Amino acid sequence: MNRVLNSLLISACVLTLAACGGGHDDDDMGEPAPAMPPPRGSLIEAPPARTASLTPATIAAALTNQPGADLLLDLIVAPKCGIDIHHVQYNTVDPAGAPTTASAAMMIPTGSDPLCQGPRPIVLYAHGTAAQRSLNLANITTEDNLEGLLAATVFTTQGYILVAPNYTGYDISTLSYNPYLNADQEAKDAIDALTAARSALPTSFAPTVSDSGKLFVTGYSQGGHVAMATHKMLQETGATITASAPMSGPYAVAAFSDAVFYGQVGRTTPLFLTFTATGYQKAYGDVYASPTDIFEARYATGIESLLPSAVPRTQLFADGKLPRDQLFDSTPPDPSFAQFTPATTPANLAPVFAQGFGPDHLVTNAFRLAYLQDAQANPDGAFPNMLDNRPAANPANGLRRAFKRNDLRTWVPTAPVFLCGGADDPTVTFMNTQLIQSYWSANGVTAPVTVLDLESDITSNDPNAARKAAFAVAKAAIAADGGDAAVIESYHSTLVPPFCLSAAKSFFDSL
């Protein structure tokens, strides 16, 4: 729901002391102090508006009507709690630290079950890539908000308070773009959403529900990166975090990007690269001098203001604003890169990589060549060869510098972490999960780190045996109905998320 943003005016008072025996002339009073920006995490609308109050029956009905949500029905017990949904508008900052605004959904459990009352843990949830600016996770019953519905069902109906930021650039935010995969800014945004939501608890609608002090952080895809960056920032600032569960995220984003430029082009990568390249340019100013330096001329005009968009991503593809999959030219930028145009390994993803090349490609061959030459001169520590598993020390290419700046192979968690994904993911490759786990192990992590690959074999006493079996059944059913192409289409967006969400919830329950 789009709401009109109420202006928050803060005035400063200047206190003056009169000298003994007389006052001051107007000329002696000086200039008024400049207005101070609103504090980060402060509410714009207090209390935040309640936009919906859903019963368990309403939520169950919504699940049966959403394609993909039905996969969750066998993974969870029946909803115990209803949900009060609040639209939280709050103050935050952009990548330059300037004040801006954003919004979030706050979902509070309701009902007579003891699980739905009293002090409750908070789950801070970060969503995946959304092309449309109107995204508002508070609208969980709309057809285009499956992710919000899944998160609400898994967590809030089982007694967790859910805080889900929409991010800057979406909904009522005054920022004109989303700082996509910008670890520092989006962690601040998520933490500010949490601060604002906590300040609104308890609410007049649910006066018995309060914050227990336990905080869990999770998110999927782009949100997996946001969740991990948020865990890192909370730890570095000394804030309390109980545990995190990033899912299917591009944590080793510098290595992941190098793999893409080496020909491992995943599903809808043109959309992701447009988000990152234009967002990093606005944040850092040194990715390119002109959009035509990186983007083909037929896409360059208007591309810096394209995302988030007024229309769904399917419309962007249909209108020719972006290619769906074709990122690079089928002609290699240099004969030495022919073997990577496209990449053919790993073999199971080779057909996906091949779709990333063609005549309607987004990125110029000249830019791809410059990027690859820098990758050869200043290689990443994990791709194409395993070295020290760190981002390149001194990349010269502006885009590679930006990816290094937002790569999360820079820290080691001290609170428990659960990582979930699928090894055959054609969009955000499972390499990201493997590399961050390996980095932590090599750098002395002592906190428990658990990894679930939904494609892995079921072992004796496997706590995720039922999920792995159900995932295999769901995958086989999709393949039987639409073949391998249908599995590739649904794998990252709808097949994996319900199973990882269910596993993350079980992990949080254990703590």
What would your notes on this structure say?
It is a single chain. The chain is an alpha/beta fold and 511 residues long. The protein folds into 2 domains: 49-252 and 410-509, 3-Layer(aba) Sandwich (Rossmann fold), CATH 3.40.50; 267-405, no CATH class. The protein contains 13 helices and 9 strands. It has helices at residues 56-65, 146-155, 183-199, 222-236, 253-261, 269-284, 297-300, 313-318, 350-354, 365-377, 398-405, 431-442, 465-509, and strands at 49-54, 82-93, 99-110, 118-126, 161-165, 209-220, 243-247, 417-421, 449-453. A 9-stranded mixed β-sheet has the order 1-2-3-5-4-6-7-8-9, with helices on both faces. Helix 3 packs across helix 4 and helix 5 runs antiparallel to helix 11. The model is unreliable at 1-28 (pLDDT under 50).
Per-chain topology:
Blueprint: E1 49-54, H1 56-65, E2 82-93, E3 99-110, E4 118-126, H2 146-155, E5 161-165, H3 183-199, E6 209-220, H4 222-236, E7 243-247, H5 253-261, H6 269-284, H7 297-300, H8 313-318, H9 350-354, H10 365-377, H11 398-405, E8 417-421, H12 431-442, E9 449-453, H13 465-509
Q: Can you count the beta strands?
A: 9
- From the spread of the alpha carbons, the general shape counts as globular
**CATH homologous superfamily (4th level) name of the largest domain:** Alpha/Beta hydrolase fold, catalytic domain
Number of helices: 13
Report the mean per-residue pLDDT as an integer: 92
Q: What is the C-level CATH assignment of the largest domain?
A: Alpha Beta
Q: Extract low-pLDDT stretches.
A: 1-28
